Amino acid sequence: MANISLLVGSAGAGSPTSEVHSSQGETLGQLAVDSSGNIYMYVDFQEAFVAGEWAVVDHTYKAFQLSNTLAGYVGVVVGTVSASDRFGWIQVYGVHTAAWGTSDVTSGQPLIVAATTDLGHVAPMTTTAGVAVFGAIARSAPDTCASTALSTSALAAPFTVQLNFPYVSRQLGDQTSAP
User: Fold this and answer.
1) Is the pLDDT of residue 72 over 70?
2) Which domain holds residue 139?
3) What does pTM read for this prediction?
4) Which of 39, 40, 99, 172 is most buried when burial is the number of CB atoms within 10 A of its CB?
5) What does the angle CA 45 – CA 48 – CA 50 come to, to the nearest 5 degrees?
């Protein structure tokens, strides 16, 4: 599971990916790899996050909860962030087994940020209008029985996603065919 992986290499050597810092411990934007080949980006969180939520990162590596009005690189938050102005890792490449999505996500579907979404999770690319999340595809249906921090939202549940440096560009997703 991503939140207990250790990073290898010069950046974050031996540091758990779930570690959240109150002061900057790495270079913002630094990429690091764990022993499974997953890649993480070090960011400056601008608000509180629950592990598994989706964040969008601006050009200064500040991370905000994903919404359909923002653009930039996207990743899945690995550690729970209790407040703003914290620093930590988001996963941007590999397989994440507890990302947040709507209960109607199914395996193999491209993903969007729905126009009516709550912050921090994605939806399947279906007939619902939204902003496409390029570089991310669902690899399982959500675990709607999971009891986790976002379970207060009846719409969101954790699922497995394959990440390949995802991003959003505020362009409407094409709901007529998969990429």
Assistant:
1) yes
2) 97-168
3) 0.82
4) 99
5) 105
